[in-house]
Design brief:
6-stranded antiparallel β-sheet, alpha+beta, 33% strand, single chain
């Protein structure tokens, strides 16, 4: 188990989160996708607004491990299976 931060970047502004203990990076991506879907459904039903929002999944030291756009969590009906073109590992 590792600790990850699911930070949100909205129009260039970074909102940091507290670290969560998750199994691995795939579990962190799934959690971010589910959070994005809940956010879109409850807070911002106008999906056009979330086009500029994405998760930056980091380790506890702040190193970006994965970047995932919010809108793709909505477009992808099965949030457990990423589409290769919509998420990427950060350059190490």
């Amino acid at each position: 188990m590792s600790r990850y931060r699911l930070n949100i970047r909205d129009n260039g502004v970074l909102q940091t989160s507290q670290a969560e203990t998750l199994r691995d990076l795939k579990a962190a991506r799934i959690e971010a996708s589910l959070c994005a879907r809940r956010y879109i459904e409850k807070v911002r039903p106008d999906k056009q607004i979330v086009n500029r929002m994405y998760f930056e999944i980091t380790d506890c030291a702040g190193k970006v491990l994965l970047i995932m756009p919010f809108v793709e969590a909505w477009n992808n009906g099965d949030s457990t299976k990423p589409r290769r073109w919509w998420w990427r590992r950060a350059i190490r």
